[in-house]
Amino acid sequence: ILKITKRLGGLNTKISLEALERRDFYTVADITLHYYDKAYNFGLSKRKEQAIHTLSLKKDFLEENAKLIINFANIM
Q1: By CB count within 10 A, which of 1, 6, 24, 43 is most buried?
Q2: Could you tell me how far CA 66 lies from the centroid of its own chain?
Q3: Phi-psi bin for 60: left (phi > 0), alpha (psi -120 to 50), beta?
């Protein structure tokens, strides 16, 4: 959290650190993922469209999703 303080902003850093002390990992993940989602989307916007591959997964089907990801990776 401290390494990305500049990107999170002071308030989000404070909230994240307090949540971490309370072991409220959901809040920590929610705040930090917002930062990483923006960074990820920025990175995607800089890539050629042909270099981006997507795969739709079914919610709450972990084993099936794992198999789909492995098969997808093997095809690539």
Answers
A1: 1
A2: 17
A3: left
